[in-house]
Amino acid sequence: MKKIFLIIAWLFLQTPLCLQGQEPQIFFERHYINDLIFMNENDMLVLGADDAADVALYKVNENGEVVNSVVLPSIKNNNSYRRVTRFNDGTVGLLVTKYKNDTIRLQKMTVHDDLSVDTLDFKWIGYDFYDFMGHEPWVEDASGNYYYSYYVDTLWTSGHHGLRILKFDGNGNLLTERLFDDPSPSPNWGYMFPTPDMTGCRLVLSGWGSWGRYTIYNCHTLDGDLNTVSVKENIDQLSFPVECGENACFRMNPNNGRTYTINCQLEIQPDPNDPYGNPMVVHNHDILMSMFDADNFEQMAYTWGITSHVPSSSGKRNSIDFDKEGDVYMAGGMDQSGFFSKSLYIVHLDEDLNKLDEIYYREDGYDLVYVGGMRVGANGDVFVNCQIWKPNEPAFGAILKFPAEAFLGIDEAHDAGFAVAVA
Hints:
By secondary structure, the protein is mainly β. It has 2 helices and 32 strands. The strands form 7 sheets. A 6-stranded antiparallel sheet has the order 2-1-29-28-27-26. Strands 12, 14, 15, 16 and 17 form a 5-stranded antiparallel sheet that branches. It has a 5-stranded mixed sheet with strand order 13-18-19-20-21, with no helix packed on it. It is globular. It starts with a strand and ends in an 8-residue tail after the last helix.
């Protein structure tokens, strides 16, 4: 039996309320699904794989029916990163990182309404990349320039952990580049996203922290020439001793310039029985959400999802989206078993990170493994990318559609005392 709980929760307490709204439906399923985006108000572009594991694009209408599809043989093999995105000119497509013969190449693919594809090969070949997938590497600015970052192999192997940033114009020509050398970043994590004015980029990079703490997370704001404008250190000041930067999804809200994050993190404290004060895990927390202001990247607030005794999954790419009013939607995996989640958590918040509605969803007959990727439709429907694991059957990818009605009528969340945590 399907179960949707609209939940108001205190920390360490979950209180199921009555069922409201409609149950979600499996809107679309394929062998595997990488990412999804709306081409227009009614049609969705899905990047996935068919039963033959060929990488393909699918145009899916508002009823979940496949209108058209096309196989993309050029990105079938030797690729480590690909996503669907909306470019600043309103078109949709992919930014692709292609690894082949010990080199790295970059490509932009513009997808038209009939699923025909125009490709742009960036005029650059890299030889010193370190194939580390722990960061988001692409940014487009308001002028149609593209920023790409990657870890540098030669610095990595010599004991450093440098990150190289490249800036290309809209025709794929290299304009400028910069090397971030040790001690920032460390090898743990990195994330790049646009500045609020869309004229440069921001990087959240991990570095080694002080006594009793694994890492710290610093935000570097760069202008269009890749010069450092400012550095905000220890971005997770409010949420310490938990860390909002590690394994997080970062999204800048174009409606207000603020940046929002979602991840899952461990609470750590120095071990009193360790002579060196090494940290120990205090509690396996669930989903942690934070908000940072536009100008100085100060952490303004944070709040938790539903907390259980079973850890949640770490932050996943594209796990944050915004509706046309600027409200924030986030999705995460819960009830982790091994490396995989078994259920879904979806929350609707206002721009100040106050919870409006939240949903905990699971299936009795199978596990829902959240792999990242969510979009909010024009009428408020929420689409979440996951894998479905049934006993003794092969897993398959699916997009779950949560209707807008499921996110209505939970104003009691504020009255229940589950407030945003502030300084």
